[in-house]
Amino acid sequence: MTATLPFGSSMVASPPPSPAAIGLLRQAEEGLAEAERLADPSRRFATAHLAALRAGAAVLAVRAQPAKPKRGGRSVWQLLTAVAPELAEWAAFFAAGSATRAAAEAGITRLVTDRAADDLVRQVGQFLDVSRSLVGHR
Question: Between helices 114-135 and 19-37, what is the axis angle to 10°?
Answer without folding.
Answer: 160
